[in-house]
Write a structure and sequence with these properties.
The chain has a domain of 69 residues. Helix content is 52%, strand content 0%.
Length: 153
């Protein structure tokens, strides 16, 4: 399986549905990603890229053009917060130990100039996981809420 297929398959497991590349967005992004093309070439020239630059750039562009919904992103986050188990399928998507490392990197990276800012203004991922579980109360037995701010029943 090609790398892009493995990434698509893995992210689809996180979203608990088959994801697709938005081809229109992909074509537009491919035509305009000059900065990323230069960065890819720079990495390659310094032996920091372990495949051809065009292949790396295409892979990066494809994975960034997946058609996802807010629900998909929420499920992906909850899966990580819940130790790598999908709340929809109950399948293990990734090892629990890996989630700790992924969440640590996500807390400081990926938002360009605002990386890390959200940590000070948003609920923790564990709180998000608890909220998700409580929203599914109709299908599962209810649980008591634990943690900061929990009210006695």
């Amino acid at each position: 399986m090609r790398r892009s297929g493995r990434i698509l398959s893995g992210l689809s497991r996180f979203a608990a549905r088959d994801l697709t590349v938005d081809e229109e967005i992909y074509e537009s992004a491919s035509a305009a990603n000059h900065h990323n093309r230069e960065l890819t070439r720079l990495l390659f020239d310094r032996d920091r890229l372990f495949c051809e630059p065009d292949a790396a750039l295409d892979l990066d562009t494809r994975q960034s053009c997946l058609a996802v919904t807010a629900r998909d992103l929420a499920l992906m986050g909850v899966t990580l917060a819940d130790g790598g188990v999908s709340p929809v399928t109950r399948d293990r998507v990734v090892r629990e130990a890996l989630c700790h490392h992924v969440l640590a990197v996500m807390s400081i990276a990926g938002l360009y100039e605002t990386s890390g800012d959200w940590k000070y203004t948003s609920p923790s991922t564990m709180t998000i996981a608890r909220l998700w579980r409580s929203s599914q109360a109709e299908t599962r037995p209810s649980r008591t809420c634990e943690g900061p701010g929990a009210r006695a029943a």
